[in-house]
Amino acid sequence: MARSQNTFQKKEREKKRLQKRKEKEMKKEERRANASGGGLDEMMAYVDEFGNITDTPPDPLAKKKEIKASSIEIGVPKQEKEDMTAERRGKVSFFNESKGYGFINQDGTQERFFVHVNGLTEPVQEGDKVGFLLEKGMKGMNAVSVRVIR
């Protein structure tokens, strides 16, 4: 005659599983008994006109502000076109004559622009005040027609 398929370990696992199920049911009943009630209204949250979360509903009699859907901008606002034909002024912050390039810091904004020896109208050195135009390059804006201001 064959042995029973229910081993001791199987019986113990089944007991533990049943015990866990009973504990889970007890916790569920306990939560129901201790629930404060209120239902959905208790859980609701509202957003006021400034974007703050509150627990009080908005006043339906309050004056509402009309907003046109066409005035709402989604995404990054478009940048205004800069006038690249206007001459800018700046100071040469770095220039390597052997490699033929450098950088110019624009006066006021302190933006930094790349300058190549081909964009120079006369030789420049570090610290020179210069006037220049901008041109779109491969990696950003480049200074061209660079001349020293005396």
CATH structural architecture of the largest domain: Beta Barrel
What is the total number of structural domains? 2
Number of strand segments = 7
Low-confidence parts: none
Give the strand order, joined by hyphens, for the main sheet: 3-4-5-7-6
Instruction: Return the structural class.
Output: alpha+beta
Number of helices: 2
Mean pLDDT: 87
The portion of residues forming beta strands comes to: 25-35%
Protein name: DNA-binding protein
GO molecular function, one term: DNA binding
InterPro entries: Cold_shock_domain (IPR050181), CSD (IPR011129), CSP_DNA-bd (IPR002059), NA-bd_OB-fold (IPR012340)
Keywords: DNA-binding
